[in-house]
Each structure stands twice: as structure tokens, then as C-alpha cells.
Amino acid sequence: MPAVDQLVCFALYAANRTTTQAYRALLEPWNLTYPQYIALVTLWNDGEQTVGSLGEALQLDSGTLSPMLARMENAGYLTRTRRPDDERVVTVALTERGVRLRTELAHVPQCIAAGSGLTDAASARELIDALRHLTEAMKDLRDHPDDARDAHATRHTA
């Protein structure tokens, strides 16, 4: 067994890659990427919003988000409009075509759930909760790496 198979980080990496590849296969007929799909899901569920709030929700920076939204606007899925009262704020809204995509892509979540082996909503919720907990822990580590190094050093010198 390769050494990487014993690493949690590699298991997460491999799961992420293959999940993204599965989404790519499902979304290819619509020429959509996974980030574009999650932007659509956010707009379908949360409605019109600013580029800033969408970027926050998707955890994407403006350098990634703006070109992606431009491609989606060119495809006719959404519009971006500057607010008249503050032109620095850009609002993103779905077009009729973007709204119709919800029906066309309704099979995607079921396909992903079936492919992942999640048998019910409770098992999906459990996995989501565990991954959110991991994400928060890794954000804390990212933001405070010295704390983790200090804790590790303290445990091994005590």
C-alpha cells in the first residue's frame, strides 16, 4: 500500500478530485464548470445578491469570481448590474435561462448522492457536518500556524 494511502490529507485530496471529475462529467453537456454550478445553486436558493456576498458564499476571491461570472453572463445565465446608488456594488441575478437550468440540472444532486454511496439525508448531513468541522479547524490552523507548532512542541517536551 502506498504511503499516501495512510494520509488523511491525501484521502481528502483524492475524494475532492474525483468528486470534481464526476461533476465535470455531469455538467459537460451544459458547458458548465463546478464553480459555475455552485454559483447557480446559490442564486437559485438565495436569490439575487452582490458579487461580494456571492464570493463569500462560494469562498472565491474576486480574481476568480469576476471572470467566471462574465462567462456565465455571456452564456445568458445571469446578469451583472451596478447599483445606481453605489456603482462599486455589482448585483448578480439569474436570467430566465439561468432559472430554467435549475430544472435541467435537477438530476445532478441525486447522481452525486448515489455515486457517493450516501443512502439518506441523515448520512449526507453527518458527512457535511464532519467536513464543515474539518474546514473550520483547517482555517484555524491556516490563520494560527504558530499555535499548532507551539502545542505540538509542548506535547513532545512535557
From TrEMBL:
Keywords annotated in UniProt: Cytoplasm, DNA-binding, Transcription, Transcription regulation
Record SUPFAM superfamilies: Winged helix' DNA-binding domain
Protein known as: MarR family transcriptional regulator
Lineage: Bacteria, Bacillati, Actinomycetota, Actinomycetes, Micrococcales
Keyword Cytoplasm: yes
GO biological process, any: response to stress
SMART domains listed in its UniProt record: HTH_MARR (SM00347)
Highest taxon of the lineage: Bacteria
Organism: Microbacterium testaceum
Any GO molecular function: DNA-binding transcription factor activity
